[in-house]
Amino acid sequence: TGGKDRRSGLILTIPLCLEQTSMDELSVTLDYLLSIPSEKCKARGFTVIVDGRKSQWNVVKTVVLMLQNVVPAEVSLVCVVKPDEFWDKKVTHFCFWKEKDRLGFEVILVSANKLTRYIEPCQLTEDFGGTLTYDHMDWLNKRLVFEKFTKESTSLLDELALINNGSDKGTQQERERSIDLNFLPSVDPETVLQTGHELLSELQQRRFNGSDGGVSWSPMDDELLAQPQVMKLLDSLREQYTRYQEVCRQRSKRTQLEEIQQKVMQVVNWLEGPGSEQLRTQWGIGDSIRASQALQQKHEEIESQHSEWFAVYVELNQQIAALLNAGDEEDLVELKALQQQLSDVCYRQASQLEFRQNLLQAALEFHSVAQDLSQQLDGLLGMLCVDVAPADGASIQQTLKLLEEKLKSVDLGLQGLREKGQSLLDQISNQASWAYGKDVTIENKENVDHIQGVMEDMQLRKQRCEDMVDVRRLKMLQMVQLFKCEEDAAQAVEWLSELLDALLKTHIRLGDDAQETKVLLEKHRKFVDVAQSTYDYGRQLLQATVVLCQSLRCTSRSSGDTLPRLNRVWKQFTVTSEERVHRLETAVAFHSTAEKILQECPDQPEAFNEMDQFDEIEAVGKSLLDRLTVPVVYPDGSEQYFGSPSDMASAAEHIREKMKLVSLKKQQLRQPEATTPES
């Protein structure tokens, strides 16, 4: 209980109860309790209080006798607390004081209220009328914690010492083998340390039960002995645990380094093995858009597999960078070598993937341009294979323009194909630089032959189309010329018809005198020359259409009826012109004769000898008047009058007036002739 006798010896209290007491258990318990104090404390002896107030005498006697065997040397006084006047007769049969020499200690029977004669009240608990504060359950709990801590810490110290000592062995393999065998302690060091600190804190407190109203107590000898023992164990544990943590850290670092190295080698082995083999087998570029797209899809699958390993590379690189920042000097070289090896392989493989992707993209673009160009050439060829049957020259011009645009588009497409092909050939020529020593000359030759074959084929097709375009262009230009000739010939017919119409409707005057009539006759001849030129121009155009039709091997749609129309109009014009010339010439003769007669002087006798001129002029005038009333008859039997009836009437009236003047002149000449014989 912590109480002491007057010799400063510890007081050991043995409370007995009504139930049967096991002597073996009591012996073990006493051995345990007597092992707690220090040797110095044991040397001062013990005072044992056997509380027999609730037990039988034979039990008490057995316990006292057992003390002789358990602690004979340490016991100096045994106080048996008896019930009041209950054992008096029994005691007479066994006197402990007589057995002092045999027992080795003094035994006294004493009532509880008289126990203070031998022990101070302050060293006795309340059970014996004393004032010493004692909580057995609290003491027991502390002892259990202490015993558990002592046991666990001692075991843990042995384990940690084995682990730590094993880590200090000579070779790395021995250290790793030792650590592998004893790496994990049986208990958690942190938990044991925490338990020890809590126990030490409890032992160092000044209040036993921790209550604020408790009575002050002097630390018991067993607790004074426990404190340094706990402190010593804690110090040893901290030392060994610190070494153990360092061992764990080194082991963790080595394990992490080994895991990183293993993962690095996994990444490197896959990239240089299956990954590189996948790229080695993928060398083609395809021979069409669909084939290139299929190769791109296959390459995307390869890239997807590589992406998983590249993700591992990124993670490993971060881990290595973290270790480099916090690593030891001895690990820096190895870590940097791993990092460099990993980076070299990954960057090289990524470059190869990117190169392959760019090559396939260039191949796809090349085949796309080739397909577009092929479609353009097919369209152009289809356009050239269709016979030209335009309606007019404008549609031919539009078709020719479309043909030129298509040819220009083909030229641009072929130029683009050459640029794409040359770029693709340049990339293929660089493929050998990452072939891992593999001879890709044969595979590259197939790709190069394919690309050059496509470009040559497109060039030949384009050349054939150009030749056909030249022929078609010439034919279309001839057709344009043919249509132009036909249009101009038809226009010549229209012009000639207009000249004929103008001749009939506006060329109706015969002149007021001979001079004016001669001027009209001269103008008419020029007018006829214009018509003749128009007719000749139309004939030449029609002859050109015949030649062009023979060249084009086609029959003109319009020249067949244009020539008859031209000849018909020209004949009508010729007939009308001749009639006009005849009338004008008759009018010139009429006006010349009339003017001569009218201008002659009556004193000239020779005039009277020419009376026959009057008859002639009258005949001419009548003939002219008759012509004015007669229509122009064409070869086809049709008729046409010059001008309107009023116009002809006006011209005839003028001629009649002049004939009247001539007749009047004739009469004047005849009158003098009649009067002369009479005179």
Automatic annotation (TrEMBL):
Presence of keyword Repeat: yes
Keyword tags: Repeat
Keyword Metal-binding among record annotations: no
InterPro entries attached to this UniProt entry: CRAL-TRIO_dom, Spectrin_SESTD1
Database matches in PROSITE patterns: CRAL_TRIO
MF term (GO), any: phosphatidylinositol-3,4-bisphosphate binding
UniProt domain CRAL-TRIO: residue ranges: 1-136
Superkingdom in the source lineage: Eukaryota
Transmembrane segments: none
Family assignment from sequence similarity: Belongs to the SOLO family.
Protein name per UniProt: SESD1 protein
Organism from which the protein derives: Pheucticus melanocephalus (Black-headed grosbeak)
